[in-house]
Amino acid sequence: MKTTILLSLILGLGAAASLRAGTAPAVTPPLAPGLIVTEYPRHASQANGKENFYVPLEQLGQPIGDKYIAESLSPWTWEPERNAVAAGFLEIEADGDYSFSTHSFYDRNLLMIQGEVVCAFRDGDDTVATIPLKKGRVNILSAGFLVGRGADGIFVRWKPPGQTELSPIPPRLLSHVDDGTVKPKRVEKEVKRTNGLLAAHLITVTDDFVVEAYKNGVRIQDGQRTPLNEIFGATVERMAVDVRPGDWLVFHVVNNHLRWGGSKYFAVAGMLGTNEFGFVSDPASEAWSVCDDPDHVRDFIRRRDEGTEIRASPIAKPWEEGDEHMRKNAGAGFPGKSLWGGGSSTWIKFVAPKNRPKPVALPVVETAPVKEVSVISIPKKPGPPPAPKAMLSPKRHPVQILYAMYGSGDKNADVTLRVKEFVETKKTWFAVTPTSLGIDPIPYWNKSLWIAYVKGGVRREVRRYENEHVLSESFYGPQDAPELAKWLPESRWHAEQGELQFHADHTATGHGFEGLPHWEALAGNKMRITWSDGRKAEYFFDYTWSSFREEGNEKAAFHVMQ
Fold first, then answer.
1. How far apart, in whole angstroms, are the C-alpha atoms of residue 217 and residue 300?
2. Which fold has domain 2-188?
3. Cα 311 vs. chain centroid, distance in angstroms?
4. Structure pTM?
C-alpha cells in the first residue's frame, strides 16, 4: 500500500487506483516525453558507512532537490550520494510477452512494471524477466540506490515480441504527466549534448573483423553497423554511435594468425566530420585497455572502469594497408595508431574522459604603448629588448623507445616501460629473458623481443631473440653509413703506430702516419680507409663504438681518445 502511494505521487493523480486495479492508469493528457527523476537523501540505514544499500521505496522519505527528466533508460543517471527513482509510462504497442533486464554498478537497482517488481535489487546482471503485457500505456519505475555509481547510471533493456535479443527501450515510448511542476530543460540539455559530443559516428578498420561492439555495456545493434569495404578478409565499418564524455566502448575483434604471416590490425576514429576527430585509437593513451580472459569479459564490457589497468598494446606486425584505409574512410589527417590485446580474439575498450580537457591559454604578450612623435622630433635609438625571465635549456633525447613487445605468435606482452628504463634512463644492457623483462607471456616457449624506436627523427625496428643481450649502445650508436659519416668527424683515435683524427672532408690527420688518408663509411659499424701509399683496408667498430679493428688483422686496433 505504501509503495502504491509513493508511485501515485510520482506518476500523477489517478495512478494509485489504476495500480490497485492492475490496469494501465487512465491518464488524461497532457503528457510529455521522458520519465520524472526524483532524488532522495541518504537513508538512516545507509548512514555511518553501513553497507546497507537497498531501501524499500516507501521508506525513501522526503525528496531532495528539483525533479528532472530522464529522456532515456539506457542509461539514466542521478547524483551518486543519493537514492533516486525514475518513473512514468511505457507505451506497449502490441499484446505479448515482454522480457526485461537491468544492470548497473553491482546491480544495485530494481525495475517495476505496473507496480510489480520485474527485476529485483541485485538479482544479477544476466537475469532476464518475462511478463505478459497488453497494448496500451503501463507504469514503469526504475530505482537506483546510494553507492550505485549514479553517475554511470542504470541501463534498462527489453525484448518485445518478435525481437530476437535485448535492446534499449526506444525513448519515444517513455512519457510522464506534464503538470507544469517539472521543467524538462530540453533546449539547455541539447546545447550541452552538442557541445560535449566526442563523436557522431565511428570508423573502424580491422584485420580480420569486429565480432560485436558495445556502448556503455549495451550491444550496438546490427542496424547501426554499415560495412564499407572488405579487403581479402579485412573489414572497414561505419557505426552509427554517438559518444559523449564518460561513455565507454568495447570492441570484440578477432584475427586468424595463420593468414598473411600473422599480421593484424585494429584502429578506430570517433568522427565529428571528415578529418574532424573526437578521439582515435592510440596504444600510448591510458584511455585504451584490453581483456583477453573470457571469464572477465562480462564485467569488462558492462563496467566502465573494469580492467582498465591492462593497457592496449601496439601491434608488432600490423597490416600494412590498415593506415591507408583509415585515411581513406576517416580522413587523410587520421592521427591515430593501431592497437591490439594479447590474443587472436581480444576485447578492446575505450573510456572517454568525463570532462573535456580545458584549452591551453596562450600567454598574453604585453607591448609598450607607442607614443606619437611629431615630424620634427628625432626618434631615440631603441634599446635592447628586455631579457626573458627564464631561458630553458631543454634536455636532449637522442633515442625514444616507441614500444617493445615480448612473446611469440599471438601471445605477446607490452614491455615498453621496462625497455625504456634500460635504454633511456639507465643506459645499460639487459637480457631477453622473463627475469629481465618482468613477465613471461608464454612460459616454456622460445620468445623474441620486438622494439620500435626513433633516433634522429627516423623510426627504426629491431628484433632480438631469447637469451640475447641487448646493449643500449646499439640504439645510441650509428645505425647506418650516413649516421657513421656524421658521427665520426673530429673524433680522435690512437693505436700503437700513432693517432688519427677524422675530418668532415673525409680526410684524416695524425701523428705517426704519412700523408692524408681518406675514409668512407660503409655501414653503421664499418668503414674503409685509403692510405697515402694506395693501400685500402676495411675496419669494424666494436659494439660500443669505442674501438675499431682492421678486418683480418686483430693487431691493427684503434681506440677512442676521450
1. 9
2. Jelly Rolls (2.60.120)
3. 9
4. 0.38
